[in-house]
Request: fold
Amino acid sequence: MAGPKLLVTGCRGRLGRDLVHFLGLDFEVIGVGRSDFDIRDEKAVGSFLRRVRPDVVLHAAAYVDVDGAESDRELAESVNVDGTANMARASREVGARMIYFSTDYVFDGAKKSPYIEADPPNPLSVYGRTKLAGERQTEVHAGGYAVLRVARLYGLAGPNFVLATVKAGAEQIRRRNAGEKVTPIRAVDDRIGSPTWTADIAVQTKVVIENELTGMFHVTAEGEASWYRLARDIFEILEWDVAVEACPASEQARPAPRPARSSLENAALKSLGLNFMRGYRVALSEFLLTNKERITGGL
Ligand SMILES: NC(=O)c1ccc[n+]([C@@H]2O[C@H](COP(=O)([O-])OP(=O)(O)OC[C@H]3O[C@@H](n4cnc5c(N)ncnc54)[C@H](OP(=O)(O)O)[C@@H]3O)[C@@H](O)[C@H]2O)c1
Reply:
């Protein structure tokens, strides 16, 4: 197959699976998971990359348990900071470009409009701090690199909010049809972001690879929504009669603080005329309707 040879870490993860699937349609792609090598093991990382000699490394492996990181700081740091440094050094050694996936949680959420790449980060959580440190490791140790900040991912690989909400909606309908008592789904209305389909990230990543883009890029769907708005959108698109109620984040208190509004603006891609990310509702409709049978179990 013509074109660059890609190596995708975290290939069994939510993002990694769609990167392997969609980029595999156009490129030679090697997907690796923890069973191939632990990214914290510098020697194992180096020897694998020297053997495979990829042209581009897409680093999607990470410690992503936002709440768990608050009490498991050392593990989050070793995977997200040291592991990323290992990937960056080894990529440089074999002459590969590196693409590192980061997060909207590098921001504190205090800004009243979507964040652009030039806005100063200020993570609220351990997870956010380790991902920001991973960005720095990439910038310092990789040769050619791009950092892609993504957010609120959904796709066929779960768990994610969209799949969980569809499941909860299906359960509500089943109960109502069985004459059982139904309680509305409660979804947080004061946490706002950009829900993004992993397939769209794969498409945009292809553009980043083909144009050898370098630097920091926000890569999220256009538009923004609270979790409550997103839940409402899901049932409107599916045309399901499901009761959803808005609630404050304080009602579902969790160990890690989260930004109130962490929507991202794809400003850098737009300035290059290379933003291919779609409106979040258009992408959500395509995801739900093209995968309806599989996601809803035929309901
Ligand atoms: N999910 C979101 O909403 C979201 C939002 C913003 C940013 N992101 C970023 O997007 C990227 C992908 O996230 P995701 O949701 O796809 O995560 P995920 O589903 O948890 O997948 C991450 C993968 O990383 C691998 N991994 C973890 N520790 C490893 C280690 N020590 N060595 C090798 N592999 C290891 C795991 O491999 P095994 O399966 O083999 O154990 C796992 O499949 C991450 O950088 C994350 O920070 C995600």
Summary: The CA atoms of residues 175 and 181 lie 7 Å apart. Residues 9-10, 12-16, 33-35, 38-40, 60-64, 79, 83, 101, 103, 131, 150-153 surround NAP (CB under 6 Å). The chain has a mean pLDDT of 97. DSSP finds eleven helices and twelve strands in the chain.
